[in-house]
Amino acid sequence: MMLLVIGGSVIGARLLDQTADATDRLTDRVLPAQTEAVRLQATLVNQETGVRGYAIAADKQFLTPYTKGQEAEARAVARLRDLVGDRPKLLRDLEAVEQQAAAWRRTFADPLVAGVTVGKPETIDKAVAERSRVAFNELRARWAVQNEDLARAVHDGKQRVEHERTVRTYILGALVVTFLLTAVVLTLLMRLLVARPLDALRDSSRRVARGDFQHVISGGGPKDLTAVAHDVEYMRQQLVAELEASQAQQEILTSQAADLDAQAVELRRSNAELEQFAYVASHDLQEPLRKVASFCQLLEKRYGEKLDERGLQYIDFAVDGAKRMQILINDLLTFSRVGRVNDARLPVDLDQALDRALANVETAVTETGARIERPAELPGIVGDPMLLAMLWQNLVGNAVKFRHPDRTPHVRITCERDPDHPDAWLIDVVDNGIGIPREFNEKVFVIFQRLHSRDSYGGTGIGLALCKKIVEYHGGRIWIDTDHLDGTRFRLTLPVAAEPADTSHDTPHDTEEKVRT
């Protein structure tokens, strides 16, 4: 199509150029030459009239048409020669007229002018006048030939222009028809070579899209469409492979879901048994322990005088074991009930929770002279008030219990926004006690894990494990700062409670701290 357009453009430009050339030759050269020939003939007639008038009147003013006519003749001949210079026949006609006019002037006009005396009119010799007329008539005959040739040239020019226009019309019409036929052929080729393969590719793609993933997409037509079909087929293969992998994964997930359901059933059964165990532990197990302790004390009271020192010691061991067993059972119950019993989610003021905890450990604080340094204001969060009080009680109680023998216990509590997580509070509980070795930083949060013997420090080894469970139940985390060497620094995070935007209050760590002892 591009070659056809270029060829048609070249042919059309050539036809337009030929038509313009024929028109220009006619309008710019032939027709002006005809007009200039008439002007030339008029100058010769003026010369002949001026010579006869001068010969009759012997007045020089009658020579003006003759002399002016010669000048006009020279200009007309020059212009006419420029116009017909490329036409030999018309150029010969011009030269013949020019030679005939020169011969007439040389033979008749110039001798006649030279023989006239100014102011003395004379009678013109009729023989000379007749010969001059005959010679000028011959010049007129040359004009007639020149006019005929010019008229023929004008006619030929018009015919050529008309012919060029006719040829241009036919050829341009033929080009239009050729363009239309070419468009029809290209349309048929596009339909045959492109549209049909595209339709086939579309039908195959829709068939695969409807779920027939095993249908093979084959390409046809031009190279580009074949490449597209191959790419679509490759995509189908990839989809089939991914679908098979997804089905296999789905089967695995289904199996895992069934296993999880079975485990959930087992977990619910285990939780039910744990509930039953908790009930038994809180009632049935403690009652025998209370009886053992009570009867051991009765034995000591009634038969104490009959027992020796070792017997009394045995009774003390039995009573102490029973009491420790009761404490252990109570701690285990408390640990198991975190997040399971009384799942409260209430707005909690950490200041109030800390006050309750300090009231519970007031005796130990007073006996040791411990100094508790706390922020002027602690934030409020959403959680369980009892569990949060228990958290404070265990952290402060541990700081007082594991005090350094050479210095008075000092516990410092701080609270600020967590720089890494702005939606959480970062709380530090720092003491100046004996500290925890770096290698035991994770071990202390495991239930029943103790770093010291019961003779050195009492307790069941559940306190820090209970703290970790309480913090994680509230969506935070707790750890020991290993960079703090003088004592122990517990760090924990708790989520910030949603509250109305109010910038009129400072955060807790911006307020002045106060010391309570």
Helices, strands, pairings?
Layout: H1 2-57, H2 64-83, H3 88-115, H4 126-209, H5 223-303, H6 309-337, E1 346-349, H7 350-360, H8 362-368, E2 371-374, E3 380-383, H9 385-401, E4 410-417, E5 424-431, H10 463-473, E6 478-480, E7 488-495, E8 514-516
Parallel strand pairs: 2-4
Antiparallel strand pairs: 1-3, 2-8, 4-5, 5-7, 6-7
Helix pairs in contact: 1-2, 1-3, 1-4, 3-4, 4-5, 5-6, 7-9, 9-10
The parts where pLDDT drops under 50 for at least 5 residues are: 500-517
The number of distinct β-strands equals 8
What is the gyration radius calculated from CA atoms? 65 Å
Output the structural class. Answer: alpha+beta
Mind telling me the CATH class of the domain at 2-183?
A: Mainly Alpha
Mean pLDDT: 77
Task: Summarize this structure briefly.
With 517 residues, the chain is an alpha+beta fold.
Outline the structure in words.
This protein has 517 residues and is an alpha+beta fold. Among the domains are: 2-183, Four Helix Bundle (Hemerythrin (Met), subunit A), CATH 1.20.120; 344-516, Histidine kinase-like ATPase, C-terminal domain (Heat Shock Protein 90), CATH 3.30.565.10. Helix content is 67%, strand content 8%. The strands form two sheets. It has a six-stranded mixed sheet with strand order 6-7-5-4-2-8. A two-stranded antiparallel ribbon has the order 1-3. Strand 6 (478-480) and strand 7 (488-495) form a beta hairpin. Helix 5 packs antiparallel against helix 6 (309-337). It starts with a helix and ends with a strand.
List its traits.
517 residues, alpha+beta, Four Helix Bundle (Hemerythrin (Met), subunit A), Heat Shock Protein 90, two-stranded antiparallel sheet, 10 helices, 8 strands, 67% helix, rod-shaped, disordered C terminus
